[in-house]
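pinned: reference chain
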Amino acid sequence: MSGSDRENRPDENERPRRGDAAEATGHAGELERLAGRAWIALEAADDAINASAHYLDPAQAAEQRRRLSEDRASMIGGLHHLADDLHTDTPLLHWLDIPAPTRRLLGLPTTVQACVFDLDSVLTTSSDVHLSAWAETLDGFLLERAVRRREVFIPFDRSTDYVTYLAGRPRVEGVRLFLASRGLTIPEGRADDAPTAETVHGLSNRKAQSVQRHVRREGVAAYIGSRCYLEAAGLVGIGRAVVSASLNADDMLERAGLAGLIDARIDAHAIAVAGMRSKPAPDTLLAACERLGVRPGDAAAFDTTPAGIEAAHAAGMALVVGLRREGASESSQLAGADMVVRDLAELLDHGGSALR
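pinned: its structure tokens
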């Protein structure tokens, strides 16, 4: 786990903790890492005993398993004591208490071989950055226009405009949809327009510039439950892909310390090159499944928007999980999801019981 990851862990309300909480955050990160390594070591030892059992007499095999069981109990006990001493915890530690982790412990059907995650608000707090950047960009444009035309200024609505017109879409497409919602028309412009240009591409570039400012100022963090879920998925052989319409997806993953936990990515560049349609079309999810080498019917999708939920169903995903983060409106239209949670750690806690 990187230093930036240790400095940017959400608190008990699943928001990032910084400043005075850095030491506690670091302890939690180290505990996660130790629990994950212990899991890998114990599973490797168990596999080795099973592989050699054919060449051992029953008494020897039984003795090997007894010793491994003692080692397991000792290791897990030590980690629990460490967690108590450091006043921290991680779902991965509780997974270690279960001798045989399976896909069901991820809250997934046993047939699922891969997970496809939207980036913003599912894995990282990057949606906060995008929302702030859009508000700064569009409010500035709308205010300048209203003053110049002596019209009433109607600001960007953070609670509805972002989810309805902008979330999960390429910037230029989002600008077009938002302007259309206000009955506004401006020149299309060119991709290299200056951020000050009052064109569709100019506003898009102004938003990109704003994102960089907000990232430098506010940072991007991984949700701790999401990090644990990615770790756990990797430990049981589940493929992990990220879908994002942002050109900054790689940077966001790196800053959040999640880049090494992702097996495939579909970002704005891939979308543009292949001419993929935005959600609610299923194109990006289908492309993610293809990169992971699985059928959509053998994959689960995770999203926070109605368009993402619709896209997952259109793609034929085996399970569609909606995330409604703490503080999000209960009216968020996630009713089409197979299940709705506030954090991916809830799926670990379910132990798959929700699917039985």
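why pinned: Strands lie at 9-10, 16-17, 114-118, 239-243, 264-266, 299-303, 319-323, 339-341. The longest strand covers residues 114-118.
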